[in-house]
From TrEMBL:
The keyword Phosphoprotein applies. It is an enzyme of class 2 (transferase). Keywords: Kinase, Phosphoprotein, Transferase. GO terms for cellular component: plasma membrane. Residues 39-225 form the Histidine kinase domain. It catalyses: ATP + protein L-histidine = ADP + protein N-phospho-L-histidine. The keyword Lipoprotein does not apply. It comes from marine sediment metagenome. This is histidine kinase. InterPro entries: HATPase_C_sf (IPR036890), HATPase_dom (IPR003594), His_kinase_dom (IPR005467), Sig_transdc_His_kin-like_C (IPR004358). Its EC number is 2.7.13.3. One of its GO terms (molecular function) is phosphorelay sensor kinase activity.
Length: 237
């Protein structure tokens, strides 16, 4: 119901019902209406993140099992976030290795994982930095998931994450006590979702970072699901 209410508020603004009001030609009122729209969108994002986490924790997340061309997913996501990178004056590059196999997994969940990692990298990297999305094939023998896998890395040249914080940033609501974090909005939910979704897909999530020298988050996902992907409300029973 809350999602319904906030979605309604956002749509109400988007439809121009508010902005079409002659009173909203006045700059200050237009600005205020715009701020309400931005805040409503942020609120909707937080509510959706909280619901996603609650669903995962309750074992009620439906997983799809479909053929996924991960190279296409990477290219499409980069197109999606490129305007954000441009706005923050960041170089955004995609490096796709050779012979990346088609995977059988849930493309939507992978998009959600990578979108959260890319939006963090773009958000926390100061202007003139670089954000890179790369993917490569991993043979079964060297795979942390004991089977053929694809490793996808989101790396940036931002402030990095101190060693003492590298576990805690994956906890819900945990944000670094740093100027750059305070300068940007966020509830501290994105990485908790990334962690939970990666586990759900049978993958491994690692972070390499040295403060002052950027951060690299890597998700290793099996090419085939580890066991028949559970679906529906009885998935965990
Ligand atoms: N690429 C990064 N570089 C530096 N710090 C990072 C990076 N990614 C995450 N962090 C730190 O980890 C914290 C947790 O990240 P997380 O994505 O969970 O939350 P958020 O981005 O602050 O909020 P939300 O994702 O809910 O909008 C961030 O607040 C930030 O302090
Ligand atoms: Mg985030």
């Amino acid at each position: 119901r809350v999602v319904f209410a906030v979605t309604g508020a956002v749509a109400f603004h988007q439809d121009g019902l508010v902005l079409a009001d002659p009173g909203f030609k006045e700059p200050r009122r237009r600005r205020h209406a715009g701020n309400i729209l931005i805040s409503s969108r942020m609120l909707l994002g937080i509510i959706n993140d909280l619901l996603d986490l609650a669903r995962i924790e309750a074992g009620r997340t439906d997983l799809r099992s479909e053929k996924v061309a991960i190279t296409d997913v990477c290219e499409t996501l980069c197109q999606l976030v490129r305007p954000l990178a441009d706005k923050n004056q960041l170089e955004l590059a995609v490096h796709l290795g050779e012979n990346i196999p088609v995977m059988v997994t849930d493309a939507g969940k992978i998009r959600q994982i990578l979108y959260n990692l890319l939006s963090n990298a773009i958000k926390f990297t100061p202007p003139n930095g670089q954000v890179t999305l790369s993917a490569r094939k991993i043979q079964a023998e060297e795979s942390p998931v004991q089977r053929e896998a694809v490793a996808i890395t989101v790396a940036d040249t931002g402030p990095g994450i101190p060693a003492a914080e590298q576990q805690r940033i994956f906890e819900k609501f945990h944000r670094l006590d740093s100027t750059i974090t305070r300068e940007h909005g966020g509830a501290g939910l994105g990485l908790a979702i990334v962690r939970d979704l990666t586990n759900l897909l049978g993958g491994r999530l690692t972070l390499e970072s040295e403060p002052g020298h950027g951060a690299a988050f890597t998700v290793v996902l099996p090419v085939e699901p580890p066991e028949p992907i559970p679906t529906g409300p009885d998935a965990r029973t």
